[in-house]
Amino acid sequence: MKAPPIDEWSGRVLDVELRAYALPERLVAADLAQLSAAERSRAEGFSASRRRVEYVTARAHLRRTLGAILGAPPPTIPIDADDFGKPQHAGGLQFNLSHSGRAVLIGWGARPLGVDIETTRRPARYIGRLRIVAAVVAATSLEPVAAFTLVEAASKAIGRGIGALKGMSLVGVDAANELRFATRGGATIRAAPVALGEDYVAAVAVLD
Ligand SMILES: CC(C)(COP(=O)(O)OP(=O)(O)OC[C@H]1O[C@@H](n2cnc3c(N)ncnc32)[C@H](O)[C@@H]1OP(=O)(O)O)[C@@H](O)C(=O)NCCC(=O)NCCS
Known about the structure:
alpha+beta; five-stranded antiparallel sheet; four-stranded antiparallel sheet; 5 helices; globular; binds coenzyme A
């Protein structure tokens, strides 16, 4: 069963501005109007209406937010996926987004970053077996799904897809469960939980 919608939420963690929103049941025309032509065409290509709503709603919230920051009409903001699929702003403003259940989380800031949100109902059996997730569980008081959001946010900050997890190691944890990961290439990433209530777990990560 899907987790219920989340109320609108805002916060700031690791110097990243964060907003969470509910996903509507159906496509909202005003949301579609915020997207670029390329995004509207991508949205039309999704066969699952659930995925279309998720994609359109998340991009609309992202574009409204970036539009307010940049003083530009949301559909005109230049956002393109890089070679690894990570959407990037051509002007260098850093952001990332995640969706799960009936919620979307967006984050933006000055440094390359990743965000992840999961419903607490996501089965933990498989993800708990991932080496790096098991290391986070062992080093913190967190459940596997919450530990997974920290790992996933870190991998999204790096932006190279799940392949980046192989070479990633946990190098430190403080009392607030703020973690420090290192990649094989020597980059370090800070990650911290984002408290969104009982139905969702979430995390944000930034490249040092
Ligand atoms: C990015 C990824 C971790 C997303 O995982 P997920 O839990 O399914 O989805 P989430 O809801 O948390 O995040 C999805 C969003 O992350 C963003 N995203 C996509 N690729 C990304 C990447 N490489 N790094 C960071 N963020 C990425 C997008 O905004 C995407 O949402 P959208 O498609 O609606 O715009 C996963 O899809 C992945 O690993 N992708 C890379 C795949 C890859 O390695 N491809 C090889 C490219 S050559």
